[in-house]
Specification:
- With about 325 residues, the chain is of the alpha/beta class.
- The chain has a single domain, classed as Rossmann fold (3-Layer(aba) Sandwich), CATH 3.40.50.
- The two termini are about 15 Å apart.
Length: about 325
């Protein structure tokens, strides 16, 4: 198959939608249309065609990668003479607010869990590792929520380290988008999955390297494969504003909602408010922290204004 020629310097091979869809080969469709509809997030577009063209080829690729990693792990065990616990294959899903990370993560979870060997697949979002609002308010970080400094990074790194070490069970905190905060004393248990999907804004972010050479782990150090969802800035802004307008008439109407105060805004006021939040917070986070990590991903899915993936870039081995 011919890929588009670049200058030879890119670490990626880039495929058109049609080229990528052809790589599905005999990977079976294991989801029904009803299941696909339930996996879709608010205002994201997902249909059977998108799953067939984009996610089934990705599922096929991941099946090859997981099998190869397992063979390498067994070879290392033989070499070292060890019998380590089963190591999960960890997949990171990154990208901007409103780009559709949750939908992609849920589709992957559903597809990977239907492989013929029926692996145990778990999904967590890094939202649960955000610092509680009380801490963010005390530290003056509420306007930086979603930025790297707003997460309990040591807790997230401990979680991933424990998962990779095969400890069981490992607990991850739960985040409520309704109350816009971490829920105290509630957890999701991850018990030695075959595959763990970790979805979040900044999961591919690194930090400043230490001058003394001491090891500083990054979240992405625990990933075996990573996906970055990409879209143009004006498209992302449009999706964010659209989602805000929809939430104004749905979730925001719940008196328990952190954003209940926005439920009675007029259309004009809602657009103005959403645009302000986007420019003041989400766009800054995109420029400073999220977009710079795009080139660290193993796979980049580039979406067009229709929410459909138009181009796929796969890192060369």
């Amino acid at each position: 198959m011919e890929q588009r020629v670049d200058d030879g310097l890119s670490p990626y091979r880039t495929y058109t939608r049609a080229e990528w869809a052809a790589l599905r080969e005999d990977m079976p469709m294991t989801l029904t249309s009803d299941e696909v509809n339930r996996l879709r997030s608010l205002h994201d577009r997902l249909d059977m065609k998108e799953v067939e063209d984009i996610y089934l080829p990705l599922s096929r690729l991941l099946s090859l990668y997981v099998a190869a990693t397992q063979r390498l792990h067994r070879a290392q065990q033989r070499f070292l003479g060890t019998e380590d616990a089963k190591l999960p294959y960890v997949i990171g899903v990154a990208g901007s607010v409103a780009v559709g990370k949750s939908t992609t993560a849920r589709v992957l979870e559903a597809l990977l869990g239907r492989w013929t060997n029926v692996p145990k697949v778990d999904l967590i979002t890094t939202d649960g590792f955000l610092l509680p609002n009380a801490v963010l308010e005390r530290e003056g970080l509420m306007e930086k929520k979603g930025f790297p400094e707003s997460y309990d990074l040591p807790a997230l790194l401990r979680f991933l380290s424990d998962v990779k070490a095969g400890r069981r069970p490992v607990r991850a905190p739960i985040y409520s988008h309704l109350v816009y905060d971490v829920i105290p004393n509630q957890w999701i248990e991850v018990d030695r999955p075959d595959i763990l999907i970790v979805e979040g804004l900044n999961v591919l972010q690194t930090g400043r390297l230490p001058k003394d050479g001491k090891a500083i782990p990054f979240v992405s150090d625990f990933f075996d494969f990573s996906v970055y969802l990409d879209a143009d800035e004006d498209v992302l802004k449009h999706w964010y504003v659209d989602r805000f307008l929809t939430l104004r008439g749905t979730a925001f109407r719940d008196p328990k909602s952190y954003f209940h105060r926005y439920s009675n805004l007029s259309d004009e006021e809602a657009v103005e408010t959403a645009t302000s939040i986007w420019k003041r917070i989400n766009l800054v986070n995109l420029h400073e922290n999220i977009l710079p990590t795009r080139q660290r991903a193993d796979l980049i899915l580039k979406k067009g204004a229709s929410h459909m993936v138009e181009e796929v870039s796969l890192r060369k081995l």
